[in-house]
Amino acid sequence: MESINRSNKLVATWLLLGVGMTIVQIALGGITRLTGSGLSITQWEVVTGSLPPLNESQWMAEFDKYRQTPQFQLLNFDFTLKDFKFIFFWEWFHRLWARTIGLVFAFGFVWFLLKKHFQKDMIKPLVFLFLLGALQGTIGWIMVASGLTGDAVYVKPTRLALHFLFAIGLLCYTYWFALSLLIPKTAISYQAKTRKWNLVLILLVILQLGYGALMAGHKAANIAATWPTINGQWIPSNLVTDGFLLNAIDNKIFIHFVHRGLAYLILLLTIIWTSQLYKTSGSKIYHRIRPVPCILVFLQVALGILTVLSSSGIISGHWGFFEWMAELHQLVGMMLLLSLVTSCYLVRAGSTESNSELT
């Protein structure tokens, strides 16, 4: 198997550090949402917002800004300064971590450029990576702004889903870039059929993650805290209430039903696809990755069921079993997607190359 040069390894390690930090950032986003902290900071201050309030007068100034928001006036009107400090911390830390990711990429880019570790074909993908990161930050603020006006007490679910999907896109793009630097061409297999299944599963998982974000945004888990049926029905009677598009993104029971249905479909297809993988041969890394998506999808379904069942015990302002399950459910969903991206990188279509040298 061909060796990977030192520069590629260093750049790939830097990118994988970014992948790990992005996973942490998405997890922090989940905590921010579950603790209701996302609207606690009412301004987007890219530089000066790096520091939290440092004295009592600064804390009161921030608290006064929050008290002007619909969330405080309609939902958290009984909040004390202590309560506000708790939700402020999670939103501030979420934003601070995003800034830290930006600095890690910016300083890393300059260092690798000066040390001449970049090849010419790396520059454009890296520039695109920076632009994607900046866009993600902008979408994050647009999402927050949607909950600061009118009678909104939370951010709009569609904007939450968009913010989450762009984060997933950034994560996968960075991860793919790292794989391209770490995995030699000799480790790639050519199997058109399993590749097609792989791509279908990736699209379904992305759709499922989007619906998971809509579930979170609409707080739709506890609308049917039962399993295997949905409030005693396999197909809810109030499944369709408006036009299809509005129904697909705004009807809580429809979103809940689709999220469950996609989980069962992904589970079934992953089992079939994994059985196909075990009928083919490939490199050592291919053999190691084969069982991973199937293991993760079983775990993901189990966590989803536990999340739904525990949603009946949600206590506002309290971090309990439901919140743990929801957070783990989100994290395992990301791991599942990354495992599918790994297999997609390792398996290609449209080549007549022999795999005999890879076994």
Give structural notes.
This protein is mainly α. It has helices spanning 6-34, 56-66, 70-74, 81-114, 120-145, 157-182, 192-218, 244-250, 252-277, 284-289, 292-310, 321-346, and strands spanning 189-190, 347-348. Strands 1-2 form a two-stranded parallel sheet. The longest helix is centred in the N-terminal third of the chain and has 34 residues, at 81-114. The chain is flat.
Observed structural traits:
359 residues; mainly alpha; 2 domains
- Strand and helix order: HHHHHHEHHHHHHE
Per the principal axes of the C-alpha atoms, what is the gross shape?
A: flat
Which structural class do you get from the secondary structure elements? mainly alpha
Estimated share of beta-strand residues:
under 5%
Report Rg: 22 Å
* Number of DSSP helical runs: 12
Strand order of the largest sheet: 1-2
Average pLDDT over all residues: 90
User: Which percent bin holds the helix content?
Assistant: 55-70%
DSSP strand count: 2
Sheet with the most strands?
2 strands, parallel
How many structural domains can be distinguished in the coordinates? 2
Low-confidence parts = 352-359
In whole angstroms, how far apart are the ends? 11 Å
